[in-house]
Write a structure and sequence with these properties.
The structure holds 2 protein chains of 2 kinds.
Chain A lengths: L6 E2 L10 H7 L15 H21 L6 E4 L2 H15 L6 E5 L4 H12 L3 E5 L9 H7 L4 E5 L13 H10 L4 E4 L18 E5 L10 E5 L14 H4 L7 H16 L1 H22 L3 E3 L10 E6 L4 H10 L2 E2 L15 H5 L4 H5 L1 E5 L6 H20 L15
Parallel strand pairs in A: 1-11, 3-4, 3-5, 5-6, 6-7
Antiparallel strand pairs in A: 2-8, 7-8, 9-10, 10-12
Chain B lengths: L3 H8 L12 E7 L4 E10 L2 E10 L2 H14 L4 H5 L3 H7 L8 H21 L23
Antiparallel strand pairs in B: 1-2, 2-3
The chains are: A alpha/beta, B alpha+beta.
Chain lengths: 397, 143
């Protein structure tokens, strides 16, 4: 039997570790095992490796190395930013502003804080998933102590006007956090010019290892600790450092941000070939998210009359890895909160498909998907009681 | 996450389609919840001689429809009425807990098709005895 082909189109979920990143990590899983907090030579090697990685992450964000704190990933960074700022400022006020389309690491943390007596405003988005800066300005009160708006959305790929939102926060002297987990390597980031006070990132979204992330905290921002214990990370985040992963993240962010222009052009070209191919060959399909202000690798499309999970199963059968906002894969019975927030009816949200391209994808991958997907959609439509047999075949919604 | 049997019935669904001039039709579910099943039956001498379906839904919903139509074919209306959602799920070698509602939908679809037939015949409709059988009519999709 021939080897089964795998076409990975779920880079927003996670990315493979680049070989050069794995190579950089290997010594720290092997000989260089010293605890960086110890005093002897092999410990100093670990310490130096961590500081090199810190400088690499700082450079990628336009920050100072002393403003970068290593964490276990995006969720911890988001939890730390939200809870840390909230608890450090609770004497000033109890109001937090975020958006309706944040990742659950933000939303569920905010909901937790609501149970602890904080008040949270969830700013709505327009049909493309964009936040109106005027809505943010209007939501600010005397008691607002934190604004957290994601840089780019993980499902529909919409890129928010972060610099503008940050400027509003700055004007009102409110700390501004952004979850940039999806943005790193896809959008040029400069925390200084974009008015960002705190920023979350996660290594495995940019070809680094899982279980490793960072929180940028602008110097002077008042924040409580989340993880208590030893004096690591300048006494801000306890726990012996995951040295190999941190080294890998440093290398990965350097590679990911070295040539964003080239990366974007390459991925966007492939993405547009796939997107246009789908819209031309499959009727009753609509793009979710903003047509231009979107991550270069992101496609999110709703196909009417069919449900997302059954699409994924057929695509998986052909070796294509994808994702959906349908309830049926989320473990709940509600479809994606992001798709509902942009105003999609439930039944259209159930029929969404997310394809996220990455560095290794090729034109051949795209062409294979364009060969398989129309068959999958029409096979499922054939058995759908909602589909009336192509009477409106020629009208793309 | 799915058994081989579920995958088999998902990938090679039995009895897909519509029956022309069916003796009974049952449509259950709700697009809001992400699943709709439409079951068609032909009845001859109190026996279901043919059953077909159309389903909008996930893999488990399609497999449950396929299995339910297989199970009722050739059965008397009384025997078909007794096929529970558990029987559908068991015949599929199990469903993940979160997908059990798909088998409930299949049972309910069969019941509706049978009652549609009885109504057309001027017979009294049979009563649902399972308390769960109407939960899918809630637009809130809570189970």
């Amino acid at each position: 039997m021939g080897e089964r082909r795998t076409i990975y189109l779920d880079h927003a979920a996670t990315t493979p570790v680049k070989p050069s990143v794995a190579d950089a990590m290997w010594p720290y899983l092997n000989n260089h095992f010293g605890n960086p907090s110890s005093i002897y030579r092999i410990a100093r090697e670990s310490r130096n490796a961590i500081e090199t990685a810190r400088a690499q992450v700082a450079k990628a964000l336009g920050a100072e190395p002393g403003e970068i704190y290593f964490t276990s990933g995006g969720s911890e960074s988001d939890n730390w930013a939200i809870k840390g700022i909230a608890f450090a400022n609770r004497k000033k006020g109890n109001h937090i502003i975020t958006s309706a389309i944040e990742h659950h690491a933000i939303l569920h943390t905010c909901q937790y804080l609501e149970r602890e007596g904080f008040a949270v405003t969830y700013i709505p988005v327009d049909q493309y998933g964009l936040i109106d800066p005027a809505d943010l300005e209007r939501a600010i009160t005397d008691t607002t102590i934190l604004i957290s708006i994601m840089y780019a959305n993980n499902e529909i790929g919409t890129i928010e006007p972060v610099a503008e939102l940050g400027a509003i926060a700055r004007k009102h002297k409110i700390p501004f956090h952004t979850d940039a987990v999806q943005a790193i390597g896809n959008v040029p980031i400069d925390v200084r010019t974009q008015n960002i006070d705190l920023l979350s990132l996660s290594a495995h979204k940019f070809y680094g290892p899982k279980g490793c992330g960072a929180l940028y905290i602008r110097k002077g921002v008042k924040i409580d600790n989340l993880i208590h214990g030893g004096g690591q990370e300048n006494r801000r985040r306890a726990g012996t450092e995951n040295i190999a992963a941190i080294v890998g993240m440093g290398k990965a962010i350097e590679l990911a941000t070295a040539d964003i222009e080239w990366h974007n052009t390459h991925i966007r070209t492939l993405r547009d070939r796939l997107l246009n191919g789908i819209l031309v060959t499959i009727p009753h399909a609509r793009l979710n998210g903003h047509p231009e202000k979107r991550l270069p690798g992101n496609i999110n499309i709703s196909f009417e009359f069919i449900e997302g999970e059954s699409m994924l199963l057929w695509l998986d059968d052909e070796g294509i890895c994808a994702s959906t906002g349908s309830a049926c894969t989320s473990g709940s019975l509600e479809p994606s909160h992001v798709l509902l927030a942009i105003g999609l009816p439930h039944e259209i949200a159930h029929g969404s498909l997310r394809l996220t391209l990455g560095d290794a994808n090729t034109e051949a991958d795209v062409d294979f998907v364009l060969e398989v997907l129309p068959k999958v959609v029409s096979r499922l439509r054939e058995m759908s009681p909602l589909y009336k047999g192509g009477k409106e075949e020629n009208s793309n919604v | 996450m799915y058994s081989d049997k579920v995958m088999d019935h998902f990938k090679n669904p039995r009895n897909v389609g519509e029956i022309e001039n069916p003796d009974g039709v049952g449509e259950v579910g709700n697009p809001v919840c992400g699943d709709i099943m439409k079951i068609f039956i032909s009845v001859n001498d109190n026996v279901i001689t043919d059953a077909k379906f159309k389903t909008f839904g996930c893999g488990a919903a399609i497999a449950s429809s396929s299995m339910a139509t297989e199970l009722v074919r050739g059965k008397t209306l009384e025997d078909a009425w007794e096929i529970s959602n558990k029987a559908v799920a068991e015949a599929l070698e199990g469903l993940p807990p979160i997908k059990m509602h798909c088998s409930v939908l299949a049972e309910e679809g069969i019941h509706k098709a049978i009652n549609d037939y009885r109504k057309k015949q001027g017979l009294p409709e049979w009563e649902e005895k399972n308390p769960h059988s109407h939960e899918h009519e809630d637009s809130a999709c809570e189970h």
